[in-house]
Write a structure and sequence with these properties.
2 copies of one chain form a homodimer. By secondary structure, chain A is an alpha/beta fold. The first copy, chain A, has 2 domains: 4-52, Helicase, Ruva Protein, domain 3, CATH 1.10.8; 75-168, 3-Layer(aba) Sandwich (Dna Topoisomerase Vi A Subunit, Chain: A, domain 2), CATH 3.40.1360.10. The first copy, chain A, is built from 8 helices and 6 strands, in the order H-H-H-E-E-H-E-H-E-H-E-H-E-H. The first copy, chain A, is globular and about 65 Å long. Chain A starts with a helix and ends in a 6-residue tail after the last helix. At the A-B interface, helix 1, helix 2, helix 3, strand 2 and helix 5 of A face helix 1, helix 2, helix 3, strand 2 and helix 5 of B.
Chain lengths: 198, 198
């Protein structure tokens, strides 16, 4: 019942995750009230996202160049590597601002049921990189699901016999959370990974 | 921390109503996984939304032509006019499929506090249209807020002394709703606008 252009816009918005019929309609209609410059920037960014965005040759992070800003930054400690599942995880760590090492993006987690095997994600490049560059510590910052644990275990196996320290980020009760509302699995991990304080 | 293109995309998505930082980030990143054809259609639709979409000269509905599909449709009853606030309301009425008259889009409601006066919305064109075309009934399908009631009252005043029947859509308990959870204002209206059934 809308003109074809608006129907097309609605269909496009519906392709995005978490956007349903109603939201897509609202977003499409709000395009009509946007300034021309905004739409132009939007159009340009969408096109650029297909042409300019590559993955960093070294770490797999999103980048417009062959190497990403983090890999290019010579002030960073290249002996410590934080292994993450996706590029967007890097952004989260960078927001904290306390980590000064480098990253490696796996681009997925091992999940045989979904047809994702070790060779489908950036594990071989990680191992190569650890051996080639003088990496002292590898921090596994992977989510604690079955897939995450499998991937972590696999990486540990591959690095057996090397001198690289392998660590993983801590799991436990989130800061400020009420213990009453924490799931039992998290509570179990928090208990088993307790640390002595005096 | 993302490449510039992705930051631009995030900023664009954030301009949409109801889209915050996190959602904008999710939407921008999902553009990277979309097929080229999808992005091309999106880009084209966005451009078209600025160039092709006009408002119908007669009723104010969104249209790609001078007249919208409803105004062009000669099979529709042109003696009955349904007055709505926005174009998207038309889509809702058209989905029911029982109304065969025509529409008039006000493009807003009178709201002096927000600086919207009668001359800022399509009221004069409505009155002209009612007088020029042989309109027998005007249905006010405007929401029952202060602004809506003001607008309805204003239109009624302007049509005083003419033979046009003015009606408004019914307000009351929504079908299937539990009376326990209905606000008292709706209940009051439902009570005062009760109809005799035997």
């Amino acid at each position: 019942m809308y003109p074809q252009t608006i129907n097309n816009l609605i269909e496009c918005f519906k392709k995005f995750p978490g956007i349903g019929e109603k939201t897509a309609e609202r977003l499409a209609l709000s395009c009509l009230n946007m300034e021309d410059e905004m739409i132009e920037l939007f159009v340009k960014s969408l096109k650029d996202s297909k042409t300019k965005i590559k993955t960093c040759e070294k770490c797999g992070n999103l980048s417009e160049d062959t190497l990403c800003d983090i890999c290019k930054d010579k002030s960073r400690d290249s002996s410590i590597l934080c292994v993450v599942e996706e590029s967007k995880n890097i952004v989260l760590f960078e927001k904290i601002g306390t980590f000064n090492g480098r990253y490696h993006v796996l681009g997925g987690l091992i999940s045989p049921l979904d047809g994702i095997n070790p060779e489908d994600i950036n594990i071989s490049s990680l191992i190569k990189r650890i051996k080639a560059e003088n990496i002292k510590e590898v921090i596994l910052a992977i989510k604690p699901t079955v897939e995450g644990e499998t991937t972590a275990l696999y990486i540990r196996k591959l690095l057996e016999g090397t001198n690289v320290i392998i660590s993983k980020i801590a799991h436990g009760i989130p800061m400020g959370a009420d213990i009453d509302y924490i799931d039992s699995l998290t509570l179990e991990i928090a208990l088993s990974e307790r640390s002595q304080i005096s």
